[in-house]
């Protein structure tokens, strides 16, 4: 197996150069939610062998790097984001041999692998926490413990303050054995680590080292804003948010003390030093990407400064937050410029249209505008992060209260679960029109398959002349061009409904993206907008499925026909 991994690494290096210092800046990252991609043992839950079998498909998509949501040993209270052992594979997904086979297959395909890493907390079944509850040294200080404020009228212990869990309810849980409360910013089974102990930081740095030595190409860091809490542990002020549905929901407070503390950047920098040390010793370029703060100025600090690099890029959610609500061209322009205008000079931009925590793109913006969103995001300067299923325009699946699995939905209760559950975007991948969409040959699935799988599936879209899948493949192909990797970027509002931009590099095939935000067809003249950059004629590279112009057609740039909520990519 070692020889197999070694040969795969050599092959991968020969394909795209492990020492390329810029590989991460323009890569297309493809997020795999392991429970939902492909099940090979019939238990209704996706597994590592299923991911391995799917690598040829991912290669055909044109993606460059696979981001794997957690596969570590876990009781699955938050479906892998509650880690019981950072150094083990959960049996529900497979074995170490399965992981090594997956990694070798990924490398042999010329792709890369990023692991999801959760440094803020562990499972309450982690050995560290079990020993911390017992007060064993040095683990006693590995987690955030605080004494009770007293006994209330019902005889219950009073939490240290009013902090709320992101999954609703108090962020504090009493343990009789320790006679103290521990902090959990997510489920009660996810106790927060305390980075005031230097041993905790050292432990987590060793986790990074372990997986780098295994051969992974980097990490996506989960919930970094929560890593450190203010040392005074004061009550947080009310948010007075009129849209917050209940006083025990996270949105009821302004999170002055549990998020975005100054020390977060120090911890992230300590993680980056491990990556840099590994690069210095091996010559292999690795990447750190991460979730971000809700505040743009604080997120920009994740990049670091002139002397300290931190995260290669924190996630840009503005295409999720703002394009979903954009009703005209200027709204789309604002969503794009928000990040680019704020980003430090010389850093890497990125674009996220969806993930396991957000409703599916096609359900948020409509199936037609979803592909137009992808035309925009794929051709913008920087990295692209894609969530599995976006390539076939998968939609949210209705989940009943009885079917709900996500703890965020379960904690919200039957009246509010649909607002908070993340299950709808996590349902099984739709491969074909066979039973359970080809996801499993078993008799059930961990979440129900969307009823639209008979029409929305990989096999059907591979056979179709025009389909979201084929648009996705063309867009990923365009991202590998010199003009998209290194060319200039010129974004303009053509009119109230239409936005357009160019990617131009002298001597190369160049691109023009034109997108219609209106619910009616539009015919536009972009010559005047970009004069004298554009030629009289251009060729359609790809277009919306229902577009009146399609791949290979020649068009006058003074008369471009756009489908409702549609888009087109032209080459010139």
Explained architecture:
This protein is an alpha/beta fold and 572 residues long. Among the domains are: 2-118 and 282-470, TIM Barrel, CATH 3.20.20.80; 487-571, Immunoglobulin-like. Helices cover 29% and strands 16% of the residues. The protein has helices at residues 2-16, 48-61, 96-108, 127-133, 198-214, 263-282, 296-300, 318-321, 329-342, 361-365, 367-379, 407-412, 417-420, 458-463, 468-479, 482-486, 527-530, and strands at residues 28-32, 65-68, 72-73, 85-89, 112-117, 145-146, 172-175, 180-183, 218-221, 287-290, 313-314, 350-352, 383-387, 488-493, 498-504, 511-516, 522-524, 537-543, 554-556, 560-562, 567-571. The strands form five sheets. Strands 11-10-9-5-2-1-13-12 form an eight-stranded parallel β-sheet. Helix 1 runs parallel beside helix 3 (96-108) and helix 5 runs parallel beside helix 6 (263-282). It is globular.
